[in-house]
Design a protein that fits this description.
heterotrimer; A alpha+beta (309); B mainly alpha (214); C mainly alpha (545); B: 214 residues; mainly alpha; Four Helix Bundle (Hemerythrin (Met), subunit A); two-stranded antiparallel sheet; C: 545 residues; Cytochrome C Oxidase, Chain A; binds heme-A; binds dinuclear copper ion; binds copper (II) ion
């Protein structure tokens, strides 16, 4: 199907297979319905054309039984599609923790990828095959959207928050990355390539990048440089929570609610400390919005995450 | 349609039908306006929910006495408007003129006080993009409050000014004898508009002045 | 036959002939024609933009600068949506026939009607100014923070144009609602209203309740862009998603604003040319109202990948499936109306058939993008482009042309050349499918929308689409020629060339200035056609063998 006239995209991830099945099923329902409507229309047009001899006596007078029955019939078909679609959506948009987590920062007009080992790539992403990869998406400026057609995954990257998406590639090869949210002049060139590799080759690739510091180690430096450690350490005189074991735990807030300490929560703590306060602490944490780049944030979060155990 | 024997316009059978139609038109227009201000209030409440403390702090800087005085003025003007309509219905032309003038005067007083309040706000340095100083203890979101304030209050004042204009239009029509006890639908239409503008203020007042003060 | 008609020679076209009498007219029929002129003009502006888009996309490398391409599709979207499709049927056909259909002598507020036209043109001038200065480049959806802080196009001017345009929409809609409530002829009860009136009535409600929300959100965007304060900018504490919620709260109803009048037109056409009462009149009328109401509760289906909560995504998806139900009722009822009809295949009917087919395809693909798991893949690809062009171009524009042909004899008093018209209808159908069907395939292949360049392997489909667009252009230009010709040379139509039942056909063609010599009295439901012998009962009670 990849001849001169392609009509089916490549499929290279578990999610791709799942979406394909859904697509085919729903396409089937749609074709069925369209054919029914067209078929009836054509038939009536032929049989009841002006001057034909077909009988026009006894027009249907009570119409509502008809209306209700065919509507309900088609609706049931479609509700089946709805449920299926919702299941797929929840499965795709509620990402598992993943065996490999990569941070993706979008900015006009490039994608920056940061591996946990500290390797960085631009407009390219190397991942091992048959591994659950979790992507944490951030944007430096406007809204972008991260799309890999061959994996059938897409998610808007909204500035001011973090989104996550995941995939498990099933075939080695290279696949397009596209930005699908209008983000300016070079929106159409905000593309890249995912390279899916055999695990061994991937390991070799990681080593070749010549990186000495992991992302978390880089984050530790940022943590010191920006004075976080001045408060968030055992030696500090400020009553501030420690970062150890924070990631993934359930944090109780002053207003009585609680949140799971995931990436998005950590980000909010750093950039919007005034909108909520951890229960039992004074609201003195300074606001770091405007002082930290998305890159630094990604590093900080990776660092705090590394203190999880 | 000049003074003397009023006749309905071509598309209407009777004057009564013409009057009812005009009123329905104003009701429909008010429905539209409700969604216009509704969208603004919706956005306001979303942010207030997101930043309760910042909004409360910023709202404390509003000039409360102006707000209270203005609310009083507008409520009174609703009353005078009703009295004007009653005077028209009873055919008392002098009373009609007086009540219309009173309503317009209250409206103008509102706008003057509002303008003075904006001036105070300006001196206070809370006019976003024009003259704004972030108080040290306030987060950036506090500015959002003032952005909404400076969208909502001028919009409301604009509506009120149009209302005042309509009142003067009614005055001239009353003087020309076009509003009789038999036909005063235009006045009722203006009355509807006027009470709508009042109602908007009744929603704006607590949202602006009372958030940080409860 | 024309008992309601006035004396010959005093129709609305010839009664006064000065330029002034046109520019200051309060006659809804003349205002309808004025709108027709403005809207045709903007259809060409939008069409030229579409031509540029398709020319550019014929090759992967294209011929326009990237920044120009962005401006072209943005202006295409803005012009087509707000300056052509939304006003198209209501302000022209609606303006012309709605008072006639309900037996009124004019709209309730003729001056507001005229003012609406002036405001429309004013907004059009503002838009043309934006266009000449260099255009806007943020898409017709104006998403911040791109539109407010990063774009270097004339966003403010374009937003102002759309803002002012909204006043025109509201004025017209207000007029229709009030007119339908207060000016129906004696005996014209709600359940005797022609479906076109129902459609215009419910679309007017939609316009009244949705347009002000758009106005406000554009005001907020303008404030953010002009004052550089952070209303939707996360670095100032704003929330870009909030904009999307408010925008789609307007814009989803807006897409139904574009289809509901078309459904009204098609209902008139199908029943008239099948010469049979419409199947399930009550269901059809209520379905229109149901669409109007339900459409306010599905907006977030445009935001499934934008980061809304999973819970709300599921709810909005389900609501979207429900809003399709009234549309389904309509499609099935149109089909069933053909059953035991006595069908003749005049051009308006061909357009109507095309409408039903293309709307159904557009509709079911709408359900595909409403399916959560699929939308993750299909969102912002050409699949969505194909979905909405099927409905808006294949559906609404076809219905507009169908209605135009149908009421042409009433508007001008002349018949159009039938053969040419049938040819144009067929050509539209062929050209349309050639243009937009390949885009479904491109969408699933993964071609994103708003891309000025694309992977070379997608070129064949794009070429096909561009070829189709040129056929479509011819099919849209043809009527311009023969309709103009028919105005001068066409055969005289007589009051009721289609032998239709509506009141508009019981007065002379073209109608006199105040429509009817005397106010008609309505005694029957609409569409009292008898397929067995071709007879019918008009709504004023006259029986025609
Ligand atoms: C006239 C305009 C119009 C109309 C009427 C519709 C009608 C519908 N639309 Fe469409 N839509 C648009 C114009 C329109 N749309 C536009 C412009 C966009 C893109 C905006 C942008 O991003 O730029 C869009 C985008 C859009 C999206 C977002 C896609 C995305 O960006 O990811 C979705 C998702 O749910 C959607 C769904 C639907 C549905 C379910 C209907 C339904 O109302 C369709 C109902 C009709 C039928 C279903 C067919 C008839 C039914 C049968 C034959 C019976 C069988 C069915 C049942 C019983 C259920 N539309
Ligand atoms: C509302 C109505 C509407 C209508 C009628 C159309 C009509 C058409 N549209 Fe439009 N389209 C939109 C609404 C509409 N569109 C919207 C809302 C968008 C999204 C914009 C965005 O992303 O922000 C869009 C986007 C859009 C795209 C995607 C661009 C992109 O994402 O990169 C494409 C691509 O093919 C396209 C094509 C066409 C074509 C070929 C027609 C054809 O049907 C047009 C046919 C008409 C003509 C061809 C006119 C005939 C006359 C002439 C051509 C005269 C020429 C004269 C001279 C050259 C002297 N449209
Ligand atoms: Cu980034 Cu488009
Ligand atoms: Cu929608």
């Amino acid at each position: 199907m990849q001849g001169w006239l392609p009509f089916w995209p490549r499929t290279a991830a578990v999610s791709g297979e799942v979406v394909n099945a859904l697509y085919i099923a729903e396409l089937g329902i749609c074709v069925l319905i369209v054919l029914t409507v067209v078929g009836l229309m054509l038939r009536f047009c032929l049989v009841y054309r002006r001057g034909s001899s077909a009988s026009r006596a006894n027009l249907v007078a009570k119409t509502w039984q008809w209306e209700i029955s065919w509507t309900v019939a088609t609706l049931v078909l479609f509700l089946f599609a709805f449920v299926w679609g919702a299941v797929v959506y929840i499965w795709l948009y509620d990402p598992p923790s993943g065996e490999l987590q990569i941070y993706v920062v979008g900015k006009q007009w490039m994608w920056k990828m940061e591996h946990p080992g500290g390797q960085r790539e631009i407009d390219a992403l190397h991942v091992p095959v048959n591994t659950t990869v979790r992507l944490v998406l951030a944007s430096q400026d406007v809204i972008h959207s991260f799309f890999v057609p061959a994996f059938r995954i897409k998610r808007d990257v909204v500035p001011g928050t973090l989104e996550t998406i995941w995939f498990k590639a099933t075939k080695a090869g290279t696949y397009r990355i596209e930005c699908t949210q209008l983000c300016g002049v070079q929106h159409a060139n905000m593309t890249g390539e995912v390279t899916v590799m055999e695990p061994a080759a991937f390991g070799r690739w990681l080593k070749q990048q010549g990186v000495h510091e992991s992302l978390a180690q880089q984050g530790e430096a940022v943590f010191r440089e920006h004075g976080c450690s001045g408060c968030h350490s055992t030696a500090s005189t400020v009553h501030a929570p420690l970062m150890n074991g924070l990631y993934g735990s359930l944090v109780h807030l002053q207003d009585g609610s609680s949140r799971v300490a995931d990436e998005r929560y950590l980000r909010d703590c750093i950039l919007l400390p005034r909108t909520f306060t951890v229960a039992g602490y004074p609201p003195v944490m300074p606001d770091f919005s405007g002082q930290l780049s998305e890159d630094d944030l990604v590093k900080l979060i990776a660092y705090i995450k590394s203190l999880a155990k | 349609m000049r003074s003397g024997a009023l006749r309905p316009e071509m598309q209407f059978a009777t004057l009564a039908q013409q009057g009812e139609t005009a009123q329905l038109g104003m009701w429909v227009f008010i429905a539209t306006e409700t969604l216009f201000f509704g969208a603004l209030l919706f956005a306001y409440f979303v942010y207030r929910n997101l930043y309760p403390e910042e909004f409360a702090q910023a709202a404390k800087e509003t000039v409360l006495w102006c707000g209270i005085l203005n609310t009083g003025l507008l409520l009174t003007s609703s009353l005078t408007m009703v009295l004007a309509i009653e005077a028209a219905a009873a055919g008392r032309r002098q009373a009609l003129t007086n009540w219309l003038l009173a309503t317009a005067a209250l409206g103008i007083a509102f706008i003057l006080i509002k303008s003075y309040e904006w001036y105070l706000d300006y001196q206070d340095g809370v006019v976003p993009a024009v003259h704004f100083f972030m108080k040290l203890d306030q987060a950036p979101a506090g500015e959002l409050f003032w952005v909404f304030y400076f969208i909502a209050t001028p919009l409301h004042a604009l509506h009120l000014s149009i209302g005042v204009g309509l009142l003067f239009f009614m005055l001239t029509r009353a003087r020309r004898g076009e509003l009789t006890s038999g036909y005063f639908a235009p006045l009722e239409v203006v009355g509807l508009y006027w009470s709508f503008v009042d109602t908007v203020w009744i929603f704006l007042f607590p949202a602006i002045y009372l958030v940080g003060r409860s | 036959m024309a008992a309601l008609a006035a004396d010959v020679g005093t129709d609305y076209l010839t009664s006064e002939n000065t330029v002034r009498s046109w520019l200051l007219t309060r006659d809804h029929k003349r205002i309808g024609l004025l709108f027709f002129a403005s809207i045709t003009f903007f259809f060409f502006i939008g069409g030229i933009a579409a031509t540029l888009i398709r020319l550019h996309l014929a090759t992967p490398s294209g011929l326009l600068q990237p920044s120009i391409y962005n401006r072209v599709f943005t202006m295409h979207g803005i012009v087509m949506v707000w300056f052509f499709l939304i006003p198209s049927i209501p302000t022209t056909l609606g303006n012309f026939v709605l008072p006639l259909m309900i037996g009124a002598h004019d709209l309730a507020f003729p001056r507001i009607n005229l003012a609406s036209w002036y405001v429309f043109n004013l907004s059009g001038l503002v838009l043309l100014y934006a266009l000449i200065m260099g255009g806007a480049d943020a898409g017709w959806t104006f998403y911040p923070p791109f539109s407010t802080l990063y774009s270097d196009g004339y966003i403010l001017v374009a937003a102002l144009a759309v803002f002012v345009n909204g006043f025109s929409t509201i004025m017209t809609a207000l007029n229709f609602v009030v007119t339908t409530h207060r000016l129906r002829a004696p005996g014209m009860t709600w359940m005797r209203l022609p479906l076109f009136v129902w459609a215009i009535y419910s679309v007017s409600l939609l316009m009244l309740l949705a347009t002000p929300v758009l106005a406000m959100v554009l005001l907020l965007v303008a404030a953010e862009r002009f004052l550089q304060v952070g209303l939707f900018d996360p670095t100032h504490g704003g929330d870009p998603i909030l904009f999307q919620h408010i925008f789609w709260f307007y814009s989803h109803p807006a897409v139904y604003i574009m289809i509901v009048p078309a459904m009204g037109v098609v209902s008139e056409l199908v029943t008239c040319f099948a010469r049979r009462p419409i199947f399930g009149y009550t269901g059809m009328a209520y379905a229109l109202m149901a669409i109007a109401i339900l459409s306010f509760f599905v907006w977030a289906h445009h935001m499934f990948v934008a980061g809304i909560s999973i819970y709300s995504a599921v709810v909005f998806s389900l609501m979207t499936f429900f809003v399709a139900v009234p549309s389904a009722i309509k499609v099935f009822n149109w089909t069933a109306t053909l059953h035991k009809g006595s069908i003749s295949f005049d051009a308006p009917f061909l357009y109507a058939l095309g409408f039903v087919l293309l709307f159904t395809i557009g509709g079911v693909t709408g359900l595909m993008v409403a399916t959560l798991g699929l939308d993750i893949d299909l969102h912002d690809t050409y699949f969505v482009i194909a979905h909405f062009h099927y409905i808006m171009v294949g559906g609404t524009v076809s219905a507009f042309f169908g209605g135009l042909h149908y009421w042409w004899p009433k508007i001008t008093g002349r018949l159009y050349p039938e053969l040419w018209a049938r040819f144009a209808a067929l050509l539209t159908f062929v050209g349309f499918n050639l243009t937009f069907f390949p885009q479904f395939i491109l969408g699933y292949l993964g071609m994103p929308r708003r891309y000025y360049t694309y992977a070379p392997e997608w070129q064949p489909w794009n070429l096909l689409s561009s070829a189709g667009a040129s056929i479509l252009a011819v099919a849209y230009l043809l009527p311009l020629g023969y309709l103009a010709w028919s105005m001068l040379r066409g055969e005289r139509a007589g009051p009721n060339p289609w032998r239709a039942t509506g009141l508009e056909w019981q007065t002379s063609s073209p109608p006199p200035t105040y429509n009817f010599a005397r106010t008609p009295a309505v005694t029957t439901a609409p569409y009292a056609y008898n397929p067995e012998n071709g007879s019918y009962v008009a709504q004023d009670g006259t029986v025609h063998a």
